[in-house]
What does this fold into?
Amino acid sequence: MSTMTQQSDTEAPSIPHAEGTDLVIRLEQVWKTYQMGDQDVNALAGVDLTIKRGSFWAISGSSGSGKSTMLNLLGCLDRPTKGTYLLEGRNIADTSDDELSDIRLKHLGFVFQNFHLIPQLTVQENIALPLFYQGIIGADASEQAAKLATRVGLGDRLEHRPTELSGGQQQRVAIARALSNNPSVLLADEPTGNLDTATGNSIMELLGELHAQGKTIIMVTHEPDIAAHADYELVMRDGNIESISENPPHPSRSDHGGHGS
Ligand code: ADP
Ligand code: MG
It folds into this structure.
């Protein structure tokens, strides 16, 4: 077949219904303004961005450039002051707090620099926690949590508590937990920030595997070596996107998914 298969990447003016399409996220003229005394601080100042399903993004930029605001917004922890944020075709600007937490539960997974595991719970219980909030309990939850633990290489640590694990293992638990709702998007805030280089690299390999399996990943990092694992590097500056560059396939990715190529 020699038909033109060149993707028409023309700007779609709107996305009536993006679920099931190759677009997961679209920001259109998004502003986030904080009131500081009698001053307005524009943490985000008219951001436009489209994120395709299955792509892997690294967000960087100097302190105060708007990275955390951007990630909080993408993670539906906050709403834009102005503008449109479409997640799976749904405008986040129009949602109530309850709907917002429902969207987080259904569509998003979070990984943090400090892991945020519950110390009293075992590996298996930590991973099963979001399942509980979705009404999945008992043997079903245990079984799913065990599978996820195996997926991140911790199938033999189910009964351990976080304090009995290394930092890298704790981050693997956090990643397994973030995957438990099969999220559309995995959001990671400096996921390797508290890890030594070798451990950080192994976490990046795990994220790379998830990416190869089709997961959409958005990560904040200030480390260029870590950002190089992503397909796209987005640099923030003064509340807006300074640049977006496409990376060559990372060498650690033996089975490159072919996204963006
Ligand atoms: P980064 O994560 O890149 O360091 P932030 O998103 O945290 O940047 O902050 C962007 C800008 O918005 C900064 O000028 C910051 O001071 C301001 N800002 C962030 N959060 C708040 C807030 N809750 N109240 C007031 N100003 C804020
Ligand atoms: Mg920040």
In short: The pocket of adenosine-5'-diphosphate (ligand 1) is lined by residues 34, 36, 41, 43, 61, 63-69 (CB under 6 Å). The two ends are 19 Å apart (CA to CA).
